[in-house]
Amino acid sequence: MRFRCPRQHINKKDKSQSETFCLFVICSLIHALVHGSLVMGSFKGHALPGSFFFVAGIWWTAKYALWHASRRNKNLGSTRLSSRVSQRRLEVIESSIVIFFSFVGILAEQFADNGPKLHLYDSVEKHWEDLMNWQHTTMYLFFGLAGTVTLILHTTEGAPLATDRLMLAMAFFNEGFLFFYHLHGRAMLDVHVHQLLLYAIFGEALVSFLEVFHRGNIVLELLRCTLTVLQGTWFWQIGLVLYPPSGPDWDQKDTGNMMFITMCYSWHLAFAMMVVSVIYCTVSCGVRSRLKRTPPMEMGLLKPRDRDPESEDEVL
After folding, report:
1. Are strands 127-128 and 121-122 parallel, antiparallel or unpaired?
2. What is the distance between the alpha carbons of residues 188 and 101, in angstroms, rounded to a whole number?
3. Is the dihedral of CA 233, 50, 97, 14 positive or negative?
4. For this UniProt entry, which segments traverse the membrane (predicted)?
5. In degrees rounded to 5, what are phi and psi of residue 128?
6. Nearest-CA neighbor of 71 among 228, 221, 275, 226?
7. Mean pLDDT per 10-residue segment, the chain (316 residues)
C-alpha cells in the first residue's frame, strides 16, 4: 500500500491579511511613538507593555498546547504540526517580533516627549538625565537580547539549546530587579501595585530558569504562560490606578484602596488561569478532532523510533 503525504498549500489571502495586520500594527506604533504616547509614565505607557505580555501569554499557551497535543497523538498529521522545521520557523518569527517590539520600546523611552535622547548625564547641570526612562530602556534591552539569542540559536545552532530559556529568565529577573529599586519615594498605593507586579515577574524568572533543566515540561510552560498573562493584565490595572483615563484619581493613602487592589490581584490571577485553561483545552480538542479525521496509517508504516521518548533536541 502506497501512502502519499498531503501537500501543504499556502493561502495567499490569509498571508495578505497577516501582512496587512502587521503593517497596521507597525504604523500604529510609529504614530504613537511620534506623538509621545508610549512612555511608561502614563496610562498608554502601561497599556502598551501590558498588551505585549498579554498577547505573548496567549501566543505561548496556544503554541505549547499545539505542540504538546501533537506529540501525544503521533501520526502523520500531528508529526507535521510538531516537526522541528515548523517549530524552528515559529521560533524565528517569534524572536524577530520580540526584537522589533523591544526596539520600539527603547525608541519610545529615549525619544518620545521629553526623553533623554541617549544622554545619561548632564555634565553642565551636574545631574542624571531621566533615569526612569533609562531603567525602562534597560528592561526593553534585556528582552531584545533574549530575542536575539533565540534567533541565533534557531538559525545557526551555535549555542546550547537551553540558552534561550536562560536568557528569558535573565530578562524577567532584570525587569523585576529594576522595578524593585524603582519605587523609592513613591506614594503608598503606587508602591503596592508595583510590588504585586513583582510576584508575577519573579515567578516568570524562576519558572523560565527551571525550564533550562526541564525543557518541554508542559506544566512549567503553562505556568509561565499564566504568569505572563497576569503581568499583562496587571500592567493595565496599574495604568488605570495611577493614570485613570476618566473619573477621579485614586486616593494613594487610603487603606481601603490597598485592600481592594490586593483582592483585585487575585481576580487577575484567576482570570489568567481561566484564559490559559480555555486556550489549552480548545487547542487540544481541536488537534484531537483534526487527527480523528486523518486516515489512519498502517501499523507497518510506523517506525519504532516514533514511539520513543523525545530527546531535548526534539523539544524546541
Report:
1. antiparallel
2. 32
3. positive
4. 21-41, 47-69, 90-112, 132-154, 166-184, 196-213, 225-245, 265-287
5. -75, 150
6. 221
7. 43 46 47 50 84 95 90 60 76 93 90 84 86 91 95 85 94 95 86 95 98 94 98 96 89 93 98 98 87 57 46 54
| Contact between 130 and 136 (Cβ < 8 Å) | no
Bridge partner residues of 121 (DSSP)? 128
Grid cell locating 114: 521629553
CB-based contact 65:229 (threshold 8 Å)? no
With contact defined as beta carbons under 8 Å apart, do 65 and 280 qualify? yes
Burial 284-311 (b: 16+ CB within 10 A, else e): beebeeebeeeeeeeeeeeeeeeeeeee
**DSSP letters spanning 33-67:** HHTT---SSSHHHHHHHHHHHHHHHHHHHHHHHHH
Read off the C-alpha cell for 127. Answer: 545631574
